[in-house]
Structures
1.
Amino acid sequence: MLNADSIVHDRESRVVAVAVDKDHYRIVATEDIAQGQSILTIEGQVTGRPTMYSVQISETAHIDLDDAKLVDKYPERYLWRFLNHHCQPNSVLKGRDLAAVADIKAGEEVTFNYNANEYNIAAPFRCWCDAHDKTMVRLVRGYKYLSATERRQLADLVSPHVLRQAQRDQQPEA
């Protein structure tokens, strides 16, 4: 259940909100979300350069914040900025659209696997999700760095642009 102070949005179509627990931001469902249902659309500036906060949407493009100062003023435009990584996510990015890959209950955190959408993460980070043993240090760096086993486990969630980049990397240089 949601036990956080939520930033409430005035758009009636929102099925998620930003929740804050002790300076930890996360996206939570404000109502039940069915598998396959669209959750939100990534908005922001298209850029060719990945950053710590950008989201990869194609082989050469990322979406980034238009202006970092606007996140606090217009959080509903940048909900994606608060999406946390999970090794077994309940949503997936398809281009700019975030969709549920499992039923999500109201109050549940909405997560996605960064490795499924990012080929080479600009700012790698430690995974804190509950999908694996906490004694194992797991660094999230992007699909490029996954083992063959990890890639197979993620196969149903990987974005086409990431697969194309992986195929290109595997081809011998001419």
2.
Amino acid sequence: MAEPRETCFDDLWPGRTFPPYRYVLTEDLARRYAAIAGAEPATYPAVLASQGLPLVAPPLLLDTLQPLKALLAFPEGVVHAREEVEFRGLGRVGDQITVWLSVEDRYVRNERRFVRFVQRAENQRGETLLVARKTLVWPC
């Protein structure tokens, strides 16, 4: 089977949207991310358990590059140039996360191609938990 063609700059026009990327926020995923990223605390079991609430995941777990990499064939040499993150809610263990991805802008500056994506993560109740604007240098 042939590998998918790389996604190039001309494939990424403002307004382009992608299919949703979905996953379940598991306790294992939250703890592994927290350990790797140095998030503290990984979850808040003592406080939340006493209130009967599910564990909270590290907020930046909702802002990984995984959805982009799953939905696009990254060419070699993509560079993460800039990011703005707006936190709107807490992701909790057991939440079913849907990530919506779109191209907000693309431009050329100093002979380099830039693409700005908007990545919005929401839970199964449709509550937006995070909105990130990621600007990447796109090599092809």
